[in-house]
Specification:
This protein is mainly β. It starts with a strand and ends in an 8-residue tail after the last strand.
Length: 515
């Protein structure tokens, strides 16, 4: 079976059918309209605009149950003038799953060119291993109780509340419950090479709810691969309005309590745009302009256990993207001891002239990086990598010894000047057992600067005196490279070095060491 969007057609492969059989067996989709109680038949359920209500360029749909199971497809259709498809689930219990939460374990398609898709179910949203999106606008999934429209419009999920449908664009998600339901990605692969990207370059894929769990499913870790797009995760744990901001960011500053974003099982988010190639290696073009998108997280805490966040620029256009994380509590990047899979936050510029995305971490609690996990911005090409800026109440980096890099580094291989690294903490910066913080230069250009402001700086546990443990700015130049290391500024009330740890500015080639 095929389903069309514009002039493109996507065929569900044996891979997807196997996923459907493994995840939901012989179950079929269950989409029941609120009010009429009508259940859509068939494996490809077409949701016509006539089944909803239109206000200007907004198309509203109301479902009592919405489940896409067994690899079946839900296809939203409507006239080209529609800008936003806005759907609610009113709280009916599924006769198939026994749940009020919506399960998307098959394709969800919006055929209207450029239309954005908004979907709320206050009882929870689960994306299964066979779920994916084919939408040419942005996608917003939320467990909110309402979608707010402009200054006075609102669509409540609860049909007993008075909704005021409006022509205005959605501006916020309203949460009434002190314990919003979670959003779970249970092993789906959203994007290349298996499915269409969840949204095109320049658009936003947003999850706004209670705890956000991105975890391994039947085929392994989940993936969100959205070249040149923004992936925005906002987790709340109290009542309030989550406002939709410019650039895909969700403003949750008005919430008393925020929730958890947990990425595990080797799951990852990738917004780099490396371009597409045919079967024999011919370059077909970028999804956008080759520049990176953004990953934006707003939460009470975040754990990568293990997981990855990747943002890379491959073309000549400068990236306006970034890995941008703000949490009120702890941010932890951990390694799985059994599998050896590490957690990474990686930004870079590769091959092209474009400026790479930066990394900004604002952590109200402890930033903890352990056992081979790392935060890195790097350049492999003439385009400069973006800066790393970190503010945390405390920072703890616990390595595995000198053989394995664990820590935070801004690296330059080919650009004229490497990325800078700035760390600010009102508490302690602690490095143990080979934990590393530094800027490194491996090419003809100059390394970036390292600036640290910490109340106390504690480094211990070096095993190999040549490992460069502790705080390092260095140029690892070969005989054919003469780049200089960057400069180092450290301001701290207390400095303790022990067990071989060191502060070093060095050169391994013809270049000058930094100051």
């Amino acid at each position: 079976m095929a389903f069309a969007k514009g002039t493109r057609k996507y065929h569900r492969s044996g891979w997807l059918l196997a996923a459907a059989l493994a995840s939901t067996g012989s179950l079929h989709a269950e989409i029941v309209f609120h009010g009429s109680g009508t259940t859509l038949p068939g494996a490809e359920m077409v949701i016509e605009a006539s089944r909803g209500e239109t206000r200007g360029s907004n198309l509203f749909h109301s479902f009592s149950v919405f489940n896409v199971l067994g690899g079946d497809a839900a296809v939203f259709v409507g006239p080209n003038g529609i800008r936003n498809v806005i759907s609610r689930v009113t709280g009916g219990t599924s006769e198939i799953t026994g749940l009020k939460a919506s399960i998307i374990d098959g394709p969800l398609v919006v055929t209207i060119p450029g239309a954005n898709f908004y979907f709320i179910n206050p009882n929870g949203i689960i994306l299964g291993a066979n779920g994916f999106f084919d939408v040419s606008g942005s996608v917003y999934l939320s467990t909110a109780d309402s979608v707010k429209l402009g200054e006075s419009g609102v669509l409540f999920a609860d049909p007993s509340k008075n909704s005021v449908l409006s022509t205005a664009d959605p501006v916020a998600f309203g949460f009434l419950s002190p314990t919003p339901a979670p959003i779970t990605l249970d092993g789906p692969w959203l994007g290349a090479p298996y499915t269409p990207a969840p949204v095109p370059a320049g658009k936003t894929f947003a999850l706004v709810g209670g705890d956000i769990l991105i975890q391994a499913g039947i085929f392994g870790g989940a993936a969100i691969v959205a070249p040149g797009a923004t992936v925005s995760l906002a987790s709340v744990a109290s009542a309030g309005d989550a406002r939709i901001g410019a650039g895909g960011a969700i403003d949750v500053s008005g919430f008393a309590t925020l929730g958890l974003v947990h990425i595990s099982g080797g799951s990852f988010i990738d917004v780099g745009d490396p371009g597409a190639f045919d079967d024999v290696g011919n370059f077909l073009g970028f999804a956008g302009d080759g520049s990176s998108g953004s990953i934006i997280v707003r939460a009470g805490a975040m754990t990568l256990s293990p997981g990855g966040l990747l943002a890379q620029t491959f073309g000549d256009a400068d990236s306006a993207g970034a890995i941008d994380i703000t949490v009120r509590g702890d941010l932890r990047a951990e390694t799985d001891a059994e599998s050896g899979i590490i957690s990474v936050l990686l930004a870079g510029s590769y091959g092209g002239l474009g400026q790479g995305p930066g990394i900004r971490l604002d952590v109200g609690g402890t930033l903890a990086i352990s056992d081979g996990s790392f935060v890195v911005s790097e350049s492999y090409g003439p385009g400069a990598a973006g800066a790393i800026q970190i503010r945390a109440d405390r920072i703890e980096i616990n390595g595995q010894g000198p053989a394995t890099f664990t820590g935070i580094s801004a690296d330059n291989y080919d650009a004229a000047t490497g990325p800078s690294l700035t760390i600010t903490t009102d508490g302690s910066l602690t490095l143990r057992n080979g934990g590393l913080v530094g800027t490194r230069n491996f090419g003809p250009g100059n390394g970036g600067d390292l600036v640290i402001h910490a109340d106390s700086l504690l480094a211990s546990g070096a095993i190999d005196p040549d490992s460069g443990l502790g705080l390092v700015t260095l140029s690892l130049s070969t005989e054919t490279t003469g780049g200089a290391a960057g400069n180092m500024v450290i301001r701290t009330r207390t400095l303790e070095l022990g067990d071989g740890a060191r502060i070093s500015s060095s050169t391994g080639g013809f270049g000058n060491a930094g100051n």
